[in-house]
Amino acid sequence: MERTWRWFGKNDKITLAMLKEIGVEGIVTALHDVPNGEIWTREKIRDLREYIESYGMRWSVVESLPVCESIKYGGEDRDQLIENYKESLRNLSAEGIHTICYNFMPVLDWARTDLLHPNPNGTSNLFFSHAQFAYFDIHILKREGAEKDWSAEVLAEVEKLKEKMTPEEDHKLVENIIVKTQGFVSGNIKEDDEHPVELFRQLLALYKDIDKDKLRENMRYFLAAIMPVCEECDMYMCVHPDDPPFPILGLPRIVTCDEDIEWFLKAVDNKHNGLTFCAGSLSAGAHNDVTELARKYADRTWFVHMRSCHVYPNGDFTEASHLGGRADLIELARIFEKVNPKLPMRVDHGMTMLGDENRGYNAGYSFLGRMFAMGQVQGILATVDRELGIEYNV
Description:
By secondary structure, this protein is α/β, with parallel strands linked by helices. It is 42% helix and 13% strand. An eight-stranded parallel barrel has the order 1-2-3-4-7-8-9-12. A four-stranded antiparallel sheet has the order 5-6-11-10. Helix 5 packs across helix 6. The radius of gyration is 20 Å and the shape is globular. The mean pLDDT is 94.
């Protein structure tokens, strides 16, 4: 697979020169300075593409060309926003970029409760605690009816947290859940928003009457509308699984499991409608057999995120080593290399290690931790390619 890296543009503290040194072949990025819903112009796309190419790499995947909330909940302006999306697709194609990773998660992109959860070896990882997330839902967000969405076991843990959580810890939880994981990726909440919780409540209210069936229909509507342009311009749309892969905050989630993936692929049955196979997101759900999903959907996968999660008996999960956890990355490499050895792959989240936490990197996107993971995955790929008789590109 092509070794790629998610890079957040010219202001990223991790530079292209650094990435070139560690063997990155392709860059995964976006026009983060263009507001959601506006057209990406050829000029801006070309400027970034040429900048990447000046370092000897290529712009392999767009992650992401955001799907606006109004498209997801079916607002009055969704048709105009879809027209803008089509024009951006045309412009990307004209500049030689043909793979788009996007998501259809309402309001909240990926969610974690702890961004620096300590590991026994002194490193740290991202972590999701059901009890802490429920505490945020019930006592900080104060969502109506939130208690009904949580088990008795989780509610008992929430009561214990309520007795000991400080205002500082409440603030940190808000930062971790709705600010630091969102703002740097064209999210709905920015680091400098003064009242993030109130803004978040307003966003949730937009989905008051949206259930799973309605959200599915809105996704089908969007994909059906853009497929003619994807056919015309050879653009490959690959949706990212929901992270975590289960409903949260009363919001439906529609890319969580085998049945969901099969539904959206058949709803708009076109090779340009495909999957970003995020082994990490899928492995965060104990209901998913990640290896079997890879076998089943490899021929509709256009981008791979190689990472893995460990799920605890109570459902809490943490990012695991790229050689451990529920996702067998060695077997996934065999599956995807057999189908398409040129498939773009990035290692996705990595440990925070050796001072990464002091260098101002985006949450989940350390340099040394991801470099360590890249080394592990490069070793996997070199070994698998030798098994399969494929020439490995050092």
